[in-house]
């Protein structure tokens, strides 16, 4: 009888016997864990809003935009100085390299109130080499509807650095991207009357009919006059007892626990050799054989001496020997309705490594014996 098993993650640095040992340690945990609804779903309409703005960072130590290659920076400086009463400056009079044009982005929370602060990200738009030591000037931040919701300003914080000399340069991180903690103040609120809603909807982060049905059942069995129904695999609609009770209703619902379900899936990262196999993966009866060549390289050295009464000296000559050893690990037969543990035991019996397992899983999928979604990233 096949044994149940939990998902197991193997890393390319682990040997397959260690993989099997880790799997055996996880097998006793047969019961699926329960999670809170707030961890697998979110309330529809309760989300962040993206803001964007264009501004100037000043005070750079000669690492700003070159005005010749960044005409938009020059125009921005002229406009800013004009608004401050400094006008009629020619191109010859503006030669500063201490200013950089930047794009400023931020996320406005669903219930951010006027006067609250936001973290902002500042990214260079021109050919500035570093934003370190700069200060962002007042920058309006607008939403997708064109309205201004926040204003950003303040000294920027850069994690990377760039050092240049005449013959070499060293760059660590990305010095042209910076952040300002609490660098924007909310000036306009997003209108969202939560208490005026007749119903609310839960949106699952990973749509699944079974999980949605379990969520609706848990909500209907919870205390209170609430009714929930499944609209589709990713949406559960909830009818509350009254409009004034919506916030309290949501607070109770999001802490209910359910057991999420998911389709059987195998995820492979071919670059690192990482394999993640879900617990519900099943394989039909198959016979697996994996063979190839083992390449052995031996490095050595020989001493070469000149003939007697001749010109020259003793030298060391390196030598290299390469042997190709055929390897045939034979067949491993996996019986029908194979579980994750059976698969690992069978592959481990013929000495298959992680990278060879990737090829075998792909072949099983092509043969129609692997009953799971195979995703390669």
Automatic annotation (TrEMBL):
<keyword id="KW-0732">Signal</keyword>
<dbReference type="GO" id="GO:0005198">
    <property type="term" value="F:structural molecule activity"/>
</dbReference>
<dbReference type="GO" id="GO:0030288">
    <property type="term" value="C:outer membrane-bounded periplasmic space"/>
</dbReference>
<dbReference type="GO" id="GO:0009428">
    <property type="term" value="C:bacterial-type flagellum basal body, distal rod, P ring"/>
</dbReference>
<comment type="subunit">
    <text>The basal body constitutes a major portion of the flagellar organelle and consists of four rings (L,P,S, and M) mounted on a central rod.</text>
</comment>
<keyword id="KW-0574">Periplasm</keyword>
<comment type="function">
    <text>Assembles around the rod to form the L-ring and probably protects the motor/basal body from shearing forces during rotation.</text>
</comment>
<protein>
    <recommendedName>
        <fullName>Flagellar P-ring protein</fullName>
    </recommendedName>
</protein>
<dbReference type="GO" id="GO:0071973">
    <property type="term" value="P:bacterial-type flagellum-dependent cell motility"/>
</dbReference>
<keyword id="KW-0975">Bacterial flagellum</keyword>
<keyword id="KW-0282">Flagellum</keyword>
<keyword id="KW-0966">Cell projection</keyword>
<dbReference type="Pfam" id="PF02119">
    <property type="entry name" value="FlgI"/>
</dbReference>
<comment type="similarity">
    <text>Belongs to the FlgI family.</text>
</comment>
<feature type="signal peptide">
    <location>
        <begin position="1"/>
        <end position="20"/>
    </location>
</feature>
<keyword id="KW-0969">Cilium</keyword>
<dbReference type="InterPro" id="IPR001782">
    <property type="entry name" value="Flag_FlgI"/>
</dbReference>
């Amino acid at each position: 009888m096949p044994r149940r098993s939990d998902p197991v993650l193997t890393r390319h640095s682990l040997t397959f016997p260690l993989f099997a040992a880790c799997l055996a340690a996880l097998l006793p945990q047969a019961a699926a864990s329960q999670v809170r609804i707030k961890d697998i779903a979110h309330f529809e309409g309760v989300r962040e809003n993206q803001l964007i703005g264009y501004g100037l960072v000043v005070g750079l130590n000669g690492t700003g935009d070159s005005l010749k290659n960044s005409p938009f920076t020059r125009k921005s400086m002229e406009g800013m100085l004009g608004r401050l009463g400094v006008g009629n400056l020619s191109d010859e009079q503006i030669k500063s390299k201490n200013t950089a044009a930047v794009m400023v982005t931020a996320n406005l929370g669903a219930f951010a109130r006027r006067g609250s602060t936001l973290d902002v990200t500042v990214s260079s738009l021109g050919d500035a080499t570093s934003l370190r030591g700069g200060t962002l000037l007042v920058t309006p931040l607008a939403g997708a509807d064109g309205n201004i919701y926040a204003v950003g300003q303040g000294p920027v914080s850069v994690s990377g650095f760039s050092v240049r000399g005449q013959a070499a340069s060293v760059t660590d991180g990305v010095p042209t991207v910076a952040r300002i903690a609490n660098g924007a103040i909310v000036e306009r609120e997003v209108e969202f009357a939560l208490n005026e809603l007749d119903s609310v909807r839960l949106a699952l982060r990973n749509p699944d009919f079974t999980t949605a049905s379990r969520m609706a059942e848990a909500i209907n069995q919870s205390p209170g006059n609430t009714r929930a129904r499944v609209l589709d695999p990713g949406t559960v609609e909830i009818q509350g007892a009254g409009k004034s009770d919506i916030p309290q209703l949501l607070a109770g619902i999001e802490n209910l626990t359910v057991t999420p379900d998911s389709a059987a899936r195998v995820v492979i990262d071919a670059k690192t050799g990482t394999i993640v196999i879900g617990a519900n993966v099943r394989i039909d009866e198959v016979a697996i054989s994996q063979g190839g060549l083992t390449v052995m390289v031996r490095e050595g050295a020989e001493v070469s001496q000149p003939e007697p009464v001749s010109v020259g000296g003793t030298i060391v000559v390196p030598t290299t020997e390469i042997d190709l050893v055929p390897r045939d690990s034979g067949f491993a037969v996996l019986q029908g309705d194979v579980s994750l543990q059976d698969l690992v035991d069978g592959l481990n019996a013929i000495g298959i490594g992680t990278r060879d397992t990737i090829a075998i899983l792909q072949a099983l999928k092509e043969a129609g014996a692997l009953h799971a979604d195979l995703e390669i990233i």
